[in-house]
Design brief:
alpha/beta, Rossmann fold, Arc Repressor Mutant, subunit A, 3 domains, nine-stranded mixed sheet, two-stranded antiparallel sheet, 18 helices, 48% helix, elongated
Length: 385
């Protein structure tokens, strides 16, 4: 049976538990293995079978769970999930996210590392290019930090670039963040984000609808993208090329009735083509958290948030005061005139290596960005506050 009133299943029950508990885990994992790539049919079969995964397999013509997932494959799947500390969240369980359950194609089974409760509540998805610009990375991180401070969870895909910046921004604010994978939940793709995924599991969740052992194949990511939008109330595209996974996520969001927003960018930048086209087609612009609040019909909260931010700045005096001296010097010089890295080092009388750390910190925080000519510029505060 389930491990508690939340309806989650412990994969260890599939290894050495009672026959009834083992059979339940076996049936759900077999349904996932058979129908993860046809969630519409899986939902119909589950509805026909009263939520029973074994009955759903029969309705799909797959036969008994053992015919789909033999004993050795079951043991391997459960061992992978147990080592990852994952739990199984089946369709119909009390903690199954309501926004996903309302879709026409909800996953029959989710594997979750972290807290399954993090999948519910207010959520905003922030997605964008893997090969993002420093501007895009800074804006994504700042926007996620703002929204997390307002109580929103941040959903994204744990990819390089914008996704990682969004997750880190939520963590900066002590908020929750959800990473949706295009592979088995026990794997992290890309590998360099294993530490980030570990942090996220302590402050949210990492989730997959794919069977354990599934590789991060190209065909998995469109399926993953519909979950990112499906979990959220709104989707914000920060940077994306004309044809990209982020555009697919935005299309899923529109079909699912979610709000779609985009961060505008230079019209000659390849990474701005996607959001600029979305804006042309009717997406709302996202310059800061107040725009997301307005898109969700919370205009009064948006105005209150802007007033609080203005008041905090007025009360706090010079917002650069808390920065290290090198970072303050960089900002002062760039306010005077944009500069390349070498020009900036020469103007400040510093070796380029000495500027690496403060420049990286300011770029990651979205305070400065490199333009198309290679000059560093101050990012307007409207996009960050």
């Amino acid at each position: 049976m389930a491990t508690g009133d939340d309806g989650c299943l412990d994969p260890r029950d599939g290894l050495a538990a009672s026959p009834a508990a083992r059979a339940r885990v076996h049936a759900w994992l077999a349904l996932q293995a058979h129908a993860a790539f046809d969630p519409v049919a899986a939902r119909a079969a589950l509805a026909e079978g009263g939520g029973d995964p074994a009955a759903a397999l029969c309705a799909l013509g797959a036969g008994a769970p053992r015919a789909v997932l033999g004993d050795a494959a079951l043991a391997d799947a459960c061992a992978r999930l147990a080592r990852a500390g994952a739990r199984l969240l089946p369709w119909g369980a009390p903690l199954y996210p309501a926004r996903l359950a309302a879709l026409a194609d909800p996953p029959p089974l989710l594997a979750v590392r972290g807290d399954p409760r993090a999948l519910g509540g207010p959520l905003v998805a922030i997605v964008g290019a893997r090969l993002a610009t420093p501007y895009g990375v800074g804006v994504a991180r700042a926007l996620a930090r703002q929204l997390a401070g307002l109580g929103f969870g941040i959903a994204s895909g744990l990819a390089r670039g914008i996704d990682a910046a969004a997750h880190r921004g939520a963590l900066d604010a002590g908020g929750r963040t959800i990473g949706v994978l295009g592979c088995g939940v026990e794997r992290v793709y890309p590998r360099e984000h294993e530490a980030l995924a570990g942090e996220m599991c302590g402050a949210g969740a990492v989730v997959s609808e794919l069977p354990p052992g599934a590789a991060p194949l190209k065909q998995h990511f469109p399926l993953r993208n519909r979950l990112i939008s499906g979990l959220a109330e709104a989707v914000v595209v920060v940077e994306a090329r004309a044809h990209s996974g982020s555009r697919i996520t935005a299309e899923h969001a529109a079909e699912q009735g979610r709000e779609v927003l985009a961060v505008p960018g230079p019209i000659d930048a390849p990474t701005s083509v996607g959001p600029n086209l979305l804006l042309r087609d009717g997406a709302a612009p996202a310059l800061d958290a107040s725009d997301v609040l307005r898109a969700l019909g919370r205009a009064e909260e948006a105005e209150a948030w802007l007033r609080r931010r203005a008041g905090a700045r007025a009360a706090g005096g010079d917002e650069d005061a808390a920065l290290p001296p090198e970072a303050r010097a960089v900002l002062a010089e760039l306010r005077r005139q944009p500069a390349t890295r070498d020009e900036l080092a020469a103007r400040l009388g510093l070796a380029p290596a000495a500027l690496a750390a403060p420049l990286l910190a300011l770029e990651l925080d979205g305070r400065i960005a490199e333009d198309r000519a290679g000059r560093l510029r101050i990012v307007p505060r409207r996009a960050l506050c």
